[in-house]
Design a protein that fits this description.
Two copies of one chain form a homodimer. The first copy, chain A, has 642 residues and is of the alpha+beta class. Helices cover 36% and strands 18% of the residues of chain A. The first copy, chain A, contains 18 helices and 22 strands. In chain A, strands 2, 13, 14, 15, 16, 17, 18, 20, 21 and 22 form a ten-stranded antiparallel beta sheet that branches. Chain A has a seven-stranded antiparallel beta sheet with strand order 1-5-6-7-12-9-10. In chain A, strand 14 and strand 15 form a beta hairpin. In chain A, helix 6 runs antiparallel to helix 7, helix 8 runs antiparallel to helix 9 and helix 13 packs antiparallel against helix 14. The first copy, chain A, starts with 8 loop residues before the first strand and ends with a strand. Strand 13 of chain A pairs antiparallel with strand 19 of chain B.
Chain lengths: 642, 642
Amino acid sequence: MADYGGNQTAVRIGDRFWSAFRETAAREGIPYQWKALNDAVPDAAPSGCMRNFRIAAGREQGGHAGFVFQDSDAYKWLEGVAFSLRWRPDPALEAVADGAIAEIAAAQQPDGYLDTYYIINGLDKRWTNLKDHHELYCAGHMIEAAVAYYQATGKRVLLDAAIRLAAHIDSVIGPEEGKIHGYPGHPVIEMALMRLYGVTKDPMHLRLAKYFVDERGKSPLFFEEEDRRQNRRNYWADGPHGYAYYQAAQPVREQKDAVGHSVRAMYLYSGMADVARETGDESLKEACRTLWRSTARRRMYVTGAVGSTEYGEAFSFDYDLPSDTVYGETCAAIGLVFFARRMLSLETKGEYADVMERALYNGVLSGMQLDGKRFFYVNPLEVVPEACEKDPHKRHVKPERQKWFGCACCPPNLIRLLASLEDYVCSAAGDALYIHLYAGGEIRADVGGTMALSVETDYPWDGAVRVCVAEAPAGEKTLALRVPGWCRRWSLAVNGEIVTVAPEDGYVSLKRVWRAGDVVELALDMPARYVRSAPKVRENAGRVALTRGPVVYCLEEADNGAALHMVRAGGAPRAETAWRPDLLGGVVAITTAGLREKDDGWGETLYDDRPAPAAEETPLHWIPYYAWANRGVGEMRVWIRE
Amino acid sequence: MADYGGNQTAVRIGDRFWSAFRETAAREGIPYQWKALNDAVPDAAPSGCMRNFRIAAGREQGGHAGFVFQDSDAYKWLEGVAFSLRWRPDPALEAVADGAIAEIAAAQQPDGYLDTYYIINGLDKRWTNLKDHHELYCAGHMIEAAVAYYQATGKRVLLDAAIRLAAHIDSVIGPEEGKIHGYPGHPVIEMALMRLYGVTKDPMHLRLAKYFVDERGKSPLFFEEEDRRQNRRNYWADGPHGYAYYQAAQPVREQKDAVGHSVRAMYLYSGMADVARETGDESLKEACRTLWRSTARRRMYVTGAVGSTEYGEAFSFDYDLPSDTVYGETCAAIGLVFFARRMLSLETKGEYADVMERALYNGVLSGMQLDGKRFFYVNPLEVVPEACEKDPHKRHVKPERQKWFGCACCPPNLIRLLASLEDYVCSAAGDALYIHLYAGGEIRADVGGTMALSVETDYPWDGAVRVCVAEAPAGEKTLALRVPGWCRRWSLAVNGEIVTVAPEDGYVSLKRVWRAGDVVELALDMPARYVRSAPKVRENAGRVALTRGPVVYCLEEADNGAALHMVRAGGAPRAETAWRPDLLGGVVAITTAGLREKDDGWGETLYDDRPAPAAEETPLHWIPYYAWANRGVGEMRVWIRE
């Protein structure tokens, strides 16, 4: 498993909700994406990714195809494969992966360098554009894939290549005289080196990760000097971003706001948290907390999407959360899950798990079509298809998922996250086991001896969670269950007896001597309810969104007709919830008593002093937001007028 | 006066409202703009306009400065001067204008050609880029200035130059073999030639205007062929506009929607209406009506602004009227006034005058600072200064007016409109005099003999209009007064006796034998009231805007604090109106009893299932929209939640 610190845990997920997604991702998504990486999906944007490795290895002729970061698609796919092999052995798939790894390893240079863009286009130019050319980004994803594949299969080919690549980077970049005093334009290598360090315990890997974090944004600014040396102009100089696009306008400990490209931000903050956890650096921990608060308390959508503007795929400013022009890249929501998981490993606070859960069930899952074959890059909260077509400032918003992307970061990212969900369910420290996410299955954790649990739940559709102790070590141990921030009423019972205990930092802790056969039952009350935004969120003033448990709902034209702006909540939800096995792969759908304003009789004038339009009671049919756009093109809306 | 068909009229405006604006425009704006055209305004964007003419005439050395259409700024300025000289004789100003005309005339080529961009950069390239290089646009403004200056002063220097320029164009462009079968990328010459025709009665001038209208958009598309010949790519090909940016995707009689660059659209439709009026072409009249309905009934802001998107400064699609990302160029609102005035000359319907009035008092006037020295290009209906700075898709929206613009179309355009307001007040046809706009002053009109009226009113602040007959011809004549579409209750009296007469097409007609001393009193009830948008306008669902008479109001941070999104109308306006001579040059300010939501105690979370925020009654202090941004930078909002 991935190493986020703490004691060993091992999780098997086997519930209805996640198993379906994960099985789809593994069965459909992984083979589909392998085809995409090899340009075998008809009518999809071409990739050239695997061919680049063969060209770099001298096995094929041709030029480099795609973006400078094209290699990363293969690495993320491999990492997804590795994670899936942990719970879904598949010798045929493993053989394909071994083949891919062989092609990748063949492209690696004798000095350890590995980036097909420069191997093909000329090694003399390598390491001259750390800001925009993603060599460290590709290296980071390569290292992550290598660690995951090693941990899943025990095979070292890619791991050894990763260790050579890290050694090469260490020989080129660092504080020493004669080395480049730089850092990546697109973070990820920080997280990657920390995972590599978890396996190798080589101090160099930790030192290099720490260097990238500490050096970033220091004055004189490396990126500025690099631009000057290469006679380049910073593309972002004219807009509001500047070097903050790269989260490099200041040293990380001086940064107060989540800024710039939102995926880069999430990856950087995640790497910072990894380094802070390992080193215990208090100033870095505090920087992580500051950036967390900026992200989660002032710049995050109700779906866990982040990135309010298409310009730079970036954060904008506090409380600026437009639903219709949002960027909300799938990768950024995934990055927020990374960040949240790492903050949990710094300190077990429910706020982090709440956000992790919010992003997972909404802004992350929405990225994938239910059949695992099409993907969203942008995840809007309000769509009018005509506007996507005719308003140039909404053209990044698509009313339907795409087969593949020239810049294909999101699909493999989503699949590797789904395939590694085990790493997000719980953590253990000292004598305590913390359950963060409620997924049915089994948990084994070291709490000074092995504690084994089975978890039964129909979460997120039902708030009942039954935890059975299968094995417990001697002595008092703590089992801590998260009480989600969205939950107002809940009850807890041990072996059938109600236990009254106040949650602390979002977790209820049961400290006792556990015995096999003990049963803990948590019942989370999960009514459908309307939530509001903080009053400073201009775009949502006077609006509500329907949620139930961790799931955010939306209205679609398919169920409610068009002109969704004329729909109103009309007071308390008075909701009927129903499990609909036939609908969208099986969802709890919700019907509320709402209002629809009528426009009949308004006529042709545009403006008039008429009374408020008559509204008639109408049932509003809500579906989980993540499942929108699976039934053709139409309007969709999360926030409606109250 | 300008010739919009019908009988002769002569108007003198002398009321409190318009005189102030017009005097400011003439006293401050005209000299200021002359300085700007001569690069004598410190810290303002440079123009180079007049210098270009001297360079083209060989009187100075240097390159062409500014845009390809830089010449038009001088022409629009001259036209404004000409109009102002009609009611505000100023020998010193006239001498300056004569000097400018001499410089312009000196640049004209022996063959009649006149465009400094090509004279300076090489005449061999002229007429090769009708689509984007604005030679016909500049020619159009030159002709308009020439006609206006001739009509105001009787001087023919510029008029003769214009006649030579028109002859040159006729020798180069037209249906005949060997001529270019083209038309302007930016219309205006259609209107201009019709005005020239009004003076010269030269059939060629009418024929050429008609040719430009009829040829436009025909297949094979001239612009497409021109692009191909010159190996150019249409800049707008990738977006939703294509050649519709130029209103050239179809023949004008087949166009159903107001599309593309909004100023070009308004100018084209105005020229079409001119040609339709003069030729009586029914199919062209119907095309004008169709495009009018698209503009005024589906694509116009409550302020009379048009152009919903910054991309192409253009129309977008039906009912797409966002307040905060609007373009709403001052020139486009001016163009809408042109269009409306010409539709009135096709058929006297109140709808046209209603829109003309709406644009004039709101989206046009807002373009100028009250001191006449700063100007808006973009006229938003909702501004949050932080968003203008930090949201790249709102950077075209400025929270304060600018000194001058590199592309300085709006300031002189606004001044020439204000200076020619006489031409919009009334029209006469047969035995009838129609009053469209209520401005205090005097009207003389030919209704089969001269009818002379004096008009007393404090419009738009008061709805009482007193019309005194000073002179009347023998026999029955019709005096038709417009009852604005916004007016619900009104009364009419002749010589103190109430007259009951139903308005027809927005006008009440009094047909009788008039005698000097007759007094007609129209009392228009003018309460402050909230208006709504048509239900299809998504952005304004659940919102109201305050209006009083023709004036649209807004809330400013200066009077109401920031966070205006938290303000609500809270039911009927219960308004107090007050004449405030001290405020913004003298306005009727309105205070309504509204609500302000409180955010105290919400805390740091972004989303929660709380009840609607408490709202406390608060007076809302409204000012006329046109006067916003005269007291420093702050939030502004027209539409508020009900």
